[in-house]
Amino acid sequence: MAEVLKYDSVSIEYDGKKVLEGFDLSIEEGEFISLIGPNGSGKSTLINAFLGLVPLASGAIYLMGSDNSMINAKSRAQVAAVVPQTFSTPFSFSVHDIVMMGRNPFMKRFASHTEDDLRIVDDALEQTGTLELRERKITTLSGGERQRVVIAAALAQSPRILILDEPTNHLDLNHSLQIMQLAKWLNVSKGITVLAVLHDINAAARFSDRICVLHGGKIAAAGKVSDVVSEDILGDVYDIDLIVRNNRITDSLEIVPLRNRQREKKLANKRVHVVCGGGSGEMFLEELRSNGYIISCGVLNESDSDAVCCNSLGIEFIEERPYSPISEGKKEDNLALMKSCEAIVLTDVPFGTGNMANLSSIWQICEESDLPVYIVAAEGRDFVGGAADDIIDKLINLKGAMSCSRQELLALIKSGRI
């Protein structure tokens, strides 16, 4: 595929201070590329540099193989259209007039709009769902409507490249999704190359072919979504604890921010085995992992919410078929994991015939050793005629066992006293 835009070792300075250093990015025709990173990392500066609004300290930008600095604004606009963060006009133009301005790069001086211009503008309005707004004044539109009109004006330029500078800034969820879906549709259906500056990491992961992460004016990571959207990379760049998981509905990676990194990570480096199920373990699994424990998990049925959590967090667990009772083989695998651990956590998971083997395995291990057991107290968890309550009562009476509330267990984990 042909290269349409290239940043070649671009460095930019403001008042003698470098805000971008040695930035390299090559974009091929038909790609959807997102730039992400914290505020002040240089994302929008790259777009301003492309527009010639910011001088380069070193390096070069190439548009369709030509030095961008040698291309005048009109010629540049015939190839690339830029949708800015904010759009304002001192006059109350109609939507049709605003979109028609997108034809200006192709207009000869004092010439009138042609039938072809009118057709292109109507197509742009149609593609962005703004045709019915054509007679409305731009000042009367909502934020989402206005942004779609600005994109329509960009499309009226018949661009090969569409550059979006934080296109969902100040928009609600509905309008943000609408804009991102529109950008992806233009990319896929019309073959328009898209370069988008985004704050929304999940949107970048869902709609992009590649992502470039900026941090401190330099590239922290760049590549396919699966290579860039990782806990290590994004956690360090944004200075937060997070998890990355696959959204099976959108079939895309997404992040779940957990907390700011305001404290040093505790490195407990202790092996803990968790017996849970039905979502009862999610909070404890994340907290244990965040505090540096080495975790394994008891038998969980495929697609159980705790199994999904383990997959998201990269926690080893024993998996059983959906809706199936724990087999003898899986029970033995679970026992082996328990024996390798230094403590066991039993959440407030209910017990029935399908998962009783998890509970009986804890009792078997504790009969053979003094392994500490932390039991989350719960009522009404026994669905096997009292057998589960009997085992839990016996566990609580063991030396080294502790019955506690969910809050008490979380406090123990945070303090590193498990």
Characterize this entry briefly.
The protein is an alpha/beta fold and 418 residues long.
Strand content: 25-35%
Terminal CA distance: 56 Å
Rounded radius of gyration (Å): 29 Å
Shape: elongated
Residue ranges: pLDDT <50 for 5 or more in a row? none
How helix-rich are the residues, as a percent range?
Answer: 25-40%
Would you tell me the overall average pLDDT?
92
Mind sketching the topology for me?
Elements: E1 3-14, E2 17-28, E3 32-36, H1 43-50, E4 58-63, E5 66-67, H2 73-77, E6 80-83, H3 95-100, H4 115-127, H5 143-155, E7 161-165, H6 173-190, E8 193-197, H7 201-207, E9 210-215, E10 218-224, H8 225-228, H9 231-238, E11 240-247, E12 252-260, E13 271-275, H10 282-290, E14 294-301, H11 305-313, E15 316-320, H12 328-339, E16 343-346, H13 356-368, E17 373-376, H14 387-396, E18 401-404, H15 406-415
Helix pairs in contact: 4-5, 5-6, 10-11, 10-15, 12-13, 13-14
Give a structural overview:
The protein is α/β, with parallel strands linked by helices and 418 residues long. It has helices spanning 43-50, 73-77, 95-100, 115-127, 143-155, 173-190, 201-207, 225-228, 231-238, 282-290, 305-313, 328-339, 356-368, 387-396, 406-415; strands at residues 3-14, 17-28, 32-36, 58-63, 66-67, 80-83, 161-165, 193-197, 210-215, 218-224, 240-247, 252-260, 271-275, 294-301, 316-320, 343-346, 373-376, 401-404. Helix 10 runs parallel beside helix 15. It is elongated.
